[in-house]
Amino acid sequence: MSHKISFGTDGWRGIIAKDFTFDNVRLVARAVAAYINQLGIGKRGLVVGRDNRFLAEEFAEAVAEEFTNQDIPVFLCSGATPTPVTAYAIKLYDAAGAVMLTASHNPPPYNGFKFIPEYAGPALPHITKKIEENIAKLQAGEPCDFYQLEPATGRYGHLLAEEQKTCNCTELNPFEAYIEHISNIIDLAVIRQAGLKVVVDPMYGAGIGYLEHLLGEAGAKLEVFHNNRDPLFGGTLPEPTGHSLDELRKRVRDGGAHLGLALDGDADRFGIIDANGEYITPNQFLPLLYYHLLTVKGWRGPVARTVATTHLLDRLAARVGQQVYESPVGFKYIGQNMLEKDCILGGEESGGLSIKGHIPEKDGILAGLLATEMVAYHQKSLTELLQQVYTEFGQLYSERLDIHTSLEQKEAILSQLKDFAPQELAGQLVTEKITMDGTKLILTDGAWVLIRPSGTEPLFRVYVEANSLEQKHKLQQEVKEILHLHT
């Protein structure tokens, strides 16, 4: 019985040697090749990038080989390459798209396969559905349009030295081109004048060398660690959150640095530690960045955010008469709004963002550089800048709780959520119910609650944003009691 391969929020992921095998990787590559040739754009070629995980080079070579077997030229990135850099290479070479082999911030045993279409942002559901249909046909031995049977090698999952030689592709290193592109977005002159000290933690990932190069060129005093390849990520997750950045926090405080910047495994997500050692959450940084774009750069335009991301962005947008485009969770939807609605900023509470003038793909390198630019320009810490924004627009308190249940409990709660429409919560009337992704309730004073079930496990994510810590705790407690959720 064939293993079902499906694309989740950001690609297909699996455990190496169990699900993520050479056979399955080659199968997915063939399905992508068929999709590209079905569109008639195969001759433009595909970029192939990979991160620092176990067997990364070998998996990338296998994918490249499958594409060349289907007469699709390949631009194979040399060395570990961040997801945003791989995506940028699509524009650089006018390619038909890219494949990025990465499991992003997932644990070390995982790897993943991400398809990035020609617009250089995450693939939308209608695209991944076509690829999944091709996978199913190939697994069943059915004809798949524009797929050539009997590929050149005819062998699967045995990437021997002589087989690597059959891979007719162009090796590329998009580092310099990406650096030049980002240098035109970031105000490096302002950073150069500020004399900042910055600590960088690329978390053993594909982003090693990028922040260091750009900040070093701008004259920042740097301290860098975890900047060597380690497929086990030091025994932790390559996920730059407040729970995983203790060493970065310590180095920032002990060294008197202005900022600490971290990247996840494929450098598409960011983590920021302020000068006082405080973790700046994405829900704090995104409004701060929007404020900077509006007031310092003088930009005007709408903002795109997911249903789970802070409404402080809405308050800023309303002040300047701009629209906010709310989408389901997943940067693919943000990227779509950036392309179609001319948004100047798109971001999500899980640590992804991009801005106008860049690709519609989340980029942790860009985020770290923008944070540095802000500190350099204002000559203030991010915490001080936040207080300035809070004074003007009010402070909101955001938190996500992950609550595990049994399978039986999950089914019962899902059934209850269908009719979940309380008239009030925490003493405030419920004014709106949004069900685009989970169940979201908006209250009279602007506070809100979102309940999202996991699609793969017995787990609920409860997001709350409130006007005070007391209200936040009260909302969390009431929702848990009503739905019988227990942490």
UniProtKB/TrEMBL annotation:
Domain Alpha-D-phosphohexomutase C-terminal: 438-481
GO biological process, one term: purine ribonucleoside salvage
EC number: 5.4.2.2
Keyword Isomerase: yes
Every Alpha-D-phosphohexomutase alpha/beta/alpha domain range: 5-139, 176-277, 282-393
Pfam families (alphabetical): PGM_PMM_I, PGM_PMM_II, PGM_PMM_III, PGM_PMM_IV
Keywords from the UniProt entry: Isomerase, Magnesium, Metal-binding, Phosphoprotein
PROSITE patterns: PGM_PMM
UniProt keyword annotation of Isomerase present: yes
Cofactor: Mg(2+)
InterPro entries, per the entry: A-D-PHexomutase_a/b/a-I (IPR005844), A-D-PHexomutase_a/b/a-I/II/III (IPR016055), A-D-PHexomutase_a/b/a-II (IPR005845), A-D-PHexomutase_a/b/a-III (IPR005846), A-D-PHexomutase_C (IPR005843), A-D-PHexomutase_C_sf (IPR036900), A-D-PHexomutase_CS (IPR016066), Alpha-D-phosphohexomutase_SF (IPR005841)
Pathway as given in its UniProt record: Glycolipid metabolism; diglucosyl-diacylglycerol biosynthesis; Lipid metabolism
EC supergroup of this enzyme: isomerase
Catalytic activity: alpha-D-glucose 1-phosphate = alpha-D-glucose 6-phosphate
A GO MF term: magnesium ion binding
Family affiliation: Belongs to the phosphohexose mutase family.
Protein name from the UniProt record: Phosphoglucomutase
Organism of derivation: Desulforamulus aeronauticus DSM 10349
